[in-house]
Write a structure and sequence with these properties.
single chain; alpha/beta; 6-stranded antiparallel sheet; 19 strands; about 35% helix; about 20% strand; globular
């Protein structure tokens, strides 16, 4: 089959594409920023088209038989209108192109209750596809358990960091979680379904409350028994603030996740088992598999791969583009006796558990400040301890560009009154050794931006100066360690 995957840079899309390829399907990816797929292992095996589901899709749909629709405007203020228009635009383009089937993953929801805005929107998108002239398979899932998923990260950090758990009323609602491997299996197998135009509820074999999920997670992870402190007045809104503080998942993502748990989300039918038979993974096994992936640094995709709303998306502007405007820079460099290769290892390994090589308290405070105003903070970490890829999150930065062995450019996604970048460069010296060059760039927005730079500038000598010195020292330490 010739498949078009939308949302290929997202958590599920990035995992679905290689599985479609493994089944022999031809894959075209529709992405707004093709450079985000540059470093993925399967990039050379797919056709990549720049575009957006709200734009002209005729070229993207050309000769396509199946569309996998994995787009959801989770964060934007007018997400419901945007999702509806995007779905209608996709359905109309699919009709014109003669597409045979649309496969969509929506949210599992109960009947006869007022749904949260996000669940209602996902339900509406499924209805748009089912009303179109193109056959549609709408899969509906609740909590997805898998390494790197936002739902799993929220569950993991809440359980691991809180030996005494403050639990709101909604943790006693029943949920039917499903392993990410089973979601992907259904998405792949739905590609070749015939004569189906309907929704399918999909879930794993276990029906649990969220509290039971946390307690069983603790057992699988080998944690001491967790204590529970009920707090009936902890609303979804307050809960999302709590999740924002305790876990890496920011409030903008935590709130819709929590709102989807306010009502019981259990499969009302299991017809998918007859149409696509197969044994689904139990909850404990799904947790075990996810934890093993995390321990082995083998996480394919993460929720943080998606760019957050309000974060700057433009690449670092060229110097001529700054003429007539304001820009602040902090540039530093240091020569080192380490080889360029050794220095690059330190540069590419920055962030996450290794930190930022200067004044850890200052970085931690900046991360907490960002969390308090709804930002991502420092706790997103990194997907792989050694290697970075264009487009992935690195603490409160986004990897904008990598020239392997020479340049790492990071774009800030913390809350700042302007746009900020951090460049880390490695160059070889004549004879021996290498030079580390570092440049911080800030383009202020309004008076607040200028005031912000003035406030933080006195600390740059400590933070950025220490960073340059310690990165060079770390590279030399590695060199000397290898020699010994």
């Amino acid at each position: 089959m010739r498949c078009l995957v939308t949302g290929a840079t997202g958590y599920l899309g990035g995992r679905l594409v290689p599985r479609l390829l493994a089944e022999g399907h031809e894959v075209r990816c529709l992405v707004r920023s093709p450079e985000k797929l540059r470093d993925v292992p399967w990039a050379a095996d797919v056709e990549i088209v720049r575009g957006d589901v709200l734009g002209d899709l005729d070229e993207a749909m050309r000769d396509v038989e199946v569309v996998h629709y994995l787009v959801h405007s989770l964060h934007s203020k007018d997400f419901a209108d945007a999702d509806r228009k995007a779905a209608e635009n996709t359905a109309e383009a699919a009709e014109r192109a003669g597409v045979r089937r649309i496969v969509y993953l929506g949210g599992l929801h109960p009947a006869g209750v007022e749904l949260s805005p996000h669940l209602a929107s996902r339900k509406e998108v499924g209805e748009v596809f089912l009303r179109s002239d193109v056959q549609a398979v709408v899969l509906q899932a609740a909590v997805i358990i898998g390494s790197g998923s936002a739902s799993f990260e929220m569950l993991r950090y809440l359980t691991e960091r809180l030996p005494v758990m403050v639990t709101p009323r909604w943790v006693h609602n029943r949920i039917q979680p499903i392993a990410v491997r089973d979601v992907l299996r259904y998405l792949v197998e739905a590609t070749t379904l015939e004569d189906e135009n309907r929704t399918f509820d999909i879930g794993g074999p276990d029906v649990l409350t969220y509290l039971q999920m946390m307690l069983r997670y603790a057992e699988v992870a080998g944690l001491p028994k967790r204590r529970v402190l009920p707090v009936p007045l902890l609303t979804p809104g307050l809960s999302s603030h709590w999740v924002n503080v305790v876990t890496p998942v920011p409030r903008s993502i935590a709130r819709p996740l929590i709102e989807s748990l306010v009502h019981e989300v259990v499969c009302r039918e299991n017809d998918i088992r007859e149409v696509l038979p197969g044994e689904n993974t139990g909850y404990d096994k799904a947790v075990e598999l996810a934890l093993s992936k995390i321990r082995d640094a083998d996480v394919e995709t993460r929720w943080s791969g998606a760019t957050l709303p309000g974060s700057p998306s433009e690449p670092l502007p060229t110097d001529p583009g700054w003429s007539g405007g304001s820009v602040y820079t902090d540039e530093r460099e240091r020569r080192t006796s380490a080889t360029p290769e050794r220095l690059w290892e330190v540069v590419e390994g920055i962030g996450g558990e290794r930190g930022w090589y200067s004044f850890p308290l200052a970085w931690a405070i900046r991360g907490w400040m960002d969390r308090l105003v709804g930002g991502v903070g420092l706790r997103r970490g990194r997907r792989d301890p050694q290697r970075l890829y264009v487009g992935e999150a690195l603490d409160f930065w986004r990897v904008e560009e990598i020239e392997r062995g020479q340049l790492l450019r990071l774009r800030a996604e913390m809350k700042v009154p302007g746009k900020a970048w951090l460049e880390l460069r490695v160059a070889g010296n004549e004879g021996h050794g290498s030079t580390y060059r570092q440049r911080a760039v800030f383009v202020p927005k309004g008076l607040a931006g200028h005031l912000y730079w003035g406030i933080v500038w006195p600390f740059h000598g400590i933070v950025f100066g220490g960073m340059v010195r310690n990165i060079a020292n770390e590279a030399e330490l590695h060199k000397n360690f290898r020699k010994s």
